[in-house]
Request: fold
Amino acid sequence: MALATLCMQWRSSVRYTRLGESLPSSNGAVQNTLDQMTQYFATTQDPALAPRLALAHIARLATQEATFTAALDYFVVVAAFASVCLARLLAHATWQTIRPPASLMHRRRFSAVSDRHGQATGSARDAR
Reply:
């Protein structure tokens, strides 16, 4: 559980950094959203605090997006690990159906030894 939390925190910080780098304040869409949020907060809250509230809201949305994409990254890794485990399990099951069980291989070995010597030993007869 601690490893999962550590991975989530790490991926969230990486995603948040990348998101922050990809959204400069000179971006028209960011500036338009910031202006609309400022107008909204100016009408519903204190007009002096509206720019700070709008910026805080955009920062909260960026944090949510970073956490969401980090969770997607984490579950992709979990799904890949589960796929590898499933492939290994299926390969093992296939190998077990192709290869005879060890008890049959042991009996075949005893019968081959007794055929070469022309006479079976007591332990080889008991194994049959």
